[in-house]
Amino acid sequence: MECAVNCYSQWFSGLACPTWNISAMEQYAVAKARVLRFNMIVVIEKLRDPNYVQAVERFFGVPGLTEKGIPYCERASKLANTKFPFVVRNETRESLTRLNEIDIQLYHELSDCLNEEGSYNNFPEWDGNRFALNSFNKTEKKRAVWNNSRTHESEQ
Fold first, then answer.
1. Best-predicted range by mean pLDDT among 5-19, 90-104, 141-155?
2. CB 59 within 8 Å of CB 124
3. How far apart are CA 10 and CA 28, in angstroms?
């Protein structure tokens, strides 16, 4: 297994050491099993779809997923990309696709179940009993702070 090929399968499997001589398909199987243990897999590029965002917000019971700040380097990066656009030749794209076919297969298996029509009605809504809460759960903390601030406002 090469280091810079099928990185997601290697990272998610935890079997990325080339000297262990573990095949790409074995890494793929372990990676898929590990990822599927999660309650939710968020497909980052789908966050551009407002319907998907609303479904994810309902799932976690917390609004404001798309409220974003401006990262420190965002403006400089966009300017650099405008001045020097990234151009990928077809031969390079085909080579990268071939080299990362295991990761591409994993991506499709995890994301193709999403409805292409923009309807995500199959996402369940928030259920606090679904998650095992640990000593610090950011969602519960945010909800508690929000509820506490509402209580103080009504007392005044």
1. 90-104
2. yes
3. 8
